[in-house]
Amino acid sequence: MARPSLREKIIESGVRTLHERGFAGAGVREITGDAGVPQGCFTNHFRSKKAFAVTILDRYHELTQAIMDETLRDESRPAAERLHAYFDAITEWLEMAGWRYGCLVGNMSLEVPEHSELLRTHLIEICGALTSSFAEAIRAGQKAGEIRSDLDADDMAAFILASWEGAMMRMKVDRSPRPIEQFRRVLFATVVSP
């Protein structure tokens, strides 16, 4: 099997580094050190730290989309069950991380919009894609009578994403699953109910 390229090593490690330390807290030295590559490799593969962050967000989004493919987009399940499965999968990952890191998209959304138009615009695109994925599942549930239909699916999806990100932010502060559990109880008792 071929060895991963240095660029790929930087990206793989960079997802973890930016997730754990944040954009401002992870300099090129930390990024390359965590990847185990010479510092000069960074500029060979990335125009800037902001361009690197776009690549990292894309990789993280690919990972999220893979989870969504297995859960939210699994048409063999009822829509409400798909939503439960998605939040179960993410909650499992959050627990393994000790309730410390939340969502990289949410973390960067809090950190970078005032400092980088490039990253702000990219985050808008990613949040739009995430919202669309929730909206698809909600529409399917509304059509099947499993999810309340008196609310617009796009509005519900935007609300779910914003509330989920907020719950993860609070989870990080508390280092506790309690905000996630509260989010899920309220979501499934009110918003996602027939």
Please tell me about this protein's structure.
By secondary structure, this protein is mainly alpha-helical. It folds into two domains: 1-46, Arc Repressor Mutant, subunit A (Orthogonal Bundle), CATH 1.10.10.60; 51-191, Orthogonal Bundle (Tetracycline Repressor, domain 2). Helix content is 73%, strand content 0%. The chain is built from nine helices and no strands. The chain has helices at 6-21, 28-35, 40-45, 49-70, 79-96, 104-111, 117-144, 153-174, 178-191. The mean pLDDT is 94.
Keywords:
194 residues, mainly alpha, Arc Repressor Mutant, subunit A, Tetracycline Repressor, domain 2, 2 domains
- As a percent range, the share of helical residues equals over 70%
CATH fold node name of the largest domain? Tetracycline Repressor, domain 2
Largest sheet: none
State the CATH architecture of the largest domain.
Orthogonal Bundle
Kindly report how far apart the N and C termini lie.
51 Å
CATH-defined superfamily of the largest domain: Tetracycline Repressor, domain 2
- Derived from helix and strand composition plus strand pairing, the structural class reads mainly alpha
What overall form do the CA principal axes indicate? elongated
In percent, how much strand structure appears in the residues? Answer: under 5%
Q: What sequence of helices (H) and strands (E) makes up the elements?
A: HHHHHHHHH
Number of helices: 9
CATH class of the largest domain: Mainly Alpha
Mean pLDDT: 94
- Radius of gyration from the alpha-carbon trace, in angstroms: 18 Å
GO molecular function, one term: DNA binding
DNA-binding region: 27-46
Organism: Gluconacetobacter tumulicola
Domain HTH tetR-type: 4-64
